[in-house]
């Protein structure tokens, strides 16, 4: 059984219950987007993740997970290790990482924007993400479908949007013309499962008109879903305080690697490294961690984010849902241990 099966089952049941009260009952398995086997080449996970982009690496005092999912990540490895570039990048990482502590390695990764986490650094917690009150909206009755802006990419955020679309919300996926969601090209069938029920709009965030259009969409929405770090929104003129002042009833679902606030908001995280940080690994008899599946924190976080959105809507809005992937993974790992 998959280690995240108990978490997915619980989240699916809660989403079905709340969605029936707010719109149309959502059957999460019918969406077909909590597993991407058959959508891309996957190997048996072990020291390397199923997609071979993320590796478990021994430091001087523990283990870290480093994700080299993007070309720029590989290019940053020499700067991270203070070493010359080598053809076999993983061999170089394993050799030099053992000479440094995990905290030092993570600190350097954060500074450079590399996705990395210490194995098991996040523990416990609830599957439903925390909600932070941002405004006090006036009570209102709803006669029109929910308007959702999905500014997220890859897996977790689009899955959250797919759940809301299945509930009957009008979901618009907005992409920057210069940086579209890469899953559209890499896994087109999976992209359709996640985004086929949404309207699609492209804007150029590099222009004043594009940024103005994006802000207008945020102010007019009932729910926005994002999957970038806080600093990205400051650069776009989308500071949460200003957006909530203009739209007090908004629910902002912020999906990040480690959390929105403080130092955690500076960290980059993807599905495999945050799964390891949350303890979603198996341990060998010799005490070494191994990956247990494919980007396990993505589907858990996507459903947890959707549940958080439904809970915030039920409460009247005016809230930010802080859906951290490592925290979702830790909650799923704890549930798996109990099961």
Written description of the protein model:
A hairpin with a 5-residue loop joins strand 10 (281-283) and strand 11 (289-291). Strands 4-12-9-8-5-6-7 form a seven-stranded mixed β-sheet, sandwiched between helices. The radius of gyration is 20 Å and the shape is globular. The chain has 339 residues and is α/β, with parallel strands linked by helices. The chain is built from 14 helices and twelve strands. The chain is 42% helix and 17% strand. It has helices spanning 5-22, 28-31, 71-81, 89-97, 102-112, 156-166, 183-186, 188-195, 208-220, 230-235, 240-246, 271-277, 297-314, 325-338, and strands at residues 54-59, 62-67, 116-118, 131-133, 147-150, 170-176, 199-203, 223-226, 251-256, 281-283, 289-291, 319-324.
Q: What topology emerges from the helices and strands here?
A:
Elements (H helix, E strand, L loop, with lengths): L4 H18 L5 H4 L22 E6 L2 E6 L3 H11 L7 H9 L4 H11 L3 E3 L12 E3 L13 E4 L5 H11 L3 E7 L6 H4 L1 H8 L3 E5 L4 H13 L2 E4 L3 H6 L4 H7 L4 E6 L14 H7 L3 E3 L5 E3 L5 H18 L4 E6 H14 L1
Parallel strand pairs: 5-6, 5-8, 6-7, 8-9, 9-12
Antiparallel strand pairs: 1-2, 2-3, 4-12, 10-11
Helix pairs in contact: 1-13, 1-14, 3-5, 6-13, 12-14, 13-14
Which features characterize this protein?
globular, alpha/beta, 339 residues, single chain, seven-stranded mixed beta sheet, 14 helices
Unreliable runs = none
Largest sheet: 7 strands, mixed
Mean pLDDT, all residues: 96
Number of separate strands = 12
Number of helices: 14
**Which strand order spans the largest sheet, edge to edge or round the barrel?**
4-12-9-8-5-6-7
What is the terminal-to-terminal distance? 11 Å
What characteristic shape results from the CA principal axes? globular
Helix content: 40-55%
Instruction: Supply Rg.
Output: 20 Å
The structure class reads alpha/beta
Strand content: 15-25%
Compressed to H and E, one letter per element, the order equals HHEEHHHEEEHEHHEHEHHEHEEHEH
């Amino acid at each position: 059984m998959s280690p995240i099966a108990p978490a997915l089952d619980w989240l699916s049941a809660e989403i079905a219950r709340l969605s029936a009260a707010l719109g149309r009952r959502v059957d999460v398995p019918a969406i077909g987007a909590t597993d991407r086997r058959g959508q891309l080449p996957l190997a048996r996970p072990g020291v390397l993740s199923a997609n071979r982009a993320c590796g478990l690496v021994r430091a001087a005092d523990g283990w870290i997970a480093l994700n080299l999912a993007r070309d720029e990540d590989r290019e940053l490895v020499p700067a991270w290790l203070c070493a010359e570039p080598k053809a076999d990048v993983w061999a170089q990482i394993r050799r030099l990482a053992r000479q440094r502590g995990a905290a030092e390695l993570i600190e350097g990764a954060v500074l450079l924007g590399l996705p990395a986490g210490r194995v098991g650094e996040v523990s416990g917690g609830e599957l439903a993400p925390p909600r932070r009150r941002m405004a006090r909206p006036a009570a209102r009755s709803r006669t029109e479908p929910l308007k959702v802006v999905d500014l997220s990419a890859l897996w977790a955020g689009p899955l959250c949007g797919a759940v809301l679309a299945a509930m009957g919300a009008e979901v618009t996926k907005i992409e920057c013309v210069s940086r579209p969601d890469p899953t559209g090209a890499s896994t087109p069938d999976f992209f359709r499962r996640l985004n086929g029920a949404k309207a699609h709009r492209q804007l150029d965030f590099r222009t004043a008109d594009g940024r103005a259009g994006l802000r207008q969409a945020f102010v007019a929405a009932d729910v926005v879903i994002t999957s970038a770090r806080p600093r990205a929104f400051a650069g776009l003129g989308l500071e949460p305080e200003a957006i909530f002042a203009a739209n007090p009833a908004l629910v902002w679902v912020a999906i990040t690697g480690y959390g929105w606030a403080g130092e955690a908001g500076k960290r980059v995280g993807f599905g495999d490294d945050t799964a390891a940080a949350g303890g979603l690994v198996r341990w060998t008899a010799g005490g070494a961690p191994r990956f247990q599946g494919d980007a396990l924190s993505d589907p858990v976080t996507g459903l947890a984010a959707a549940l958080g959105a439904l809970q915030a809507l039920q409460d009247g809005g005016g809230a930010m849902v802080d859906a951290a992937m490592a925290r979702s993974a830790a909650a799923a790992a704890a549930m798996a241990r109990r099961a």
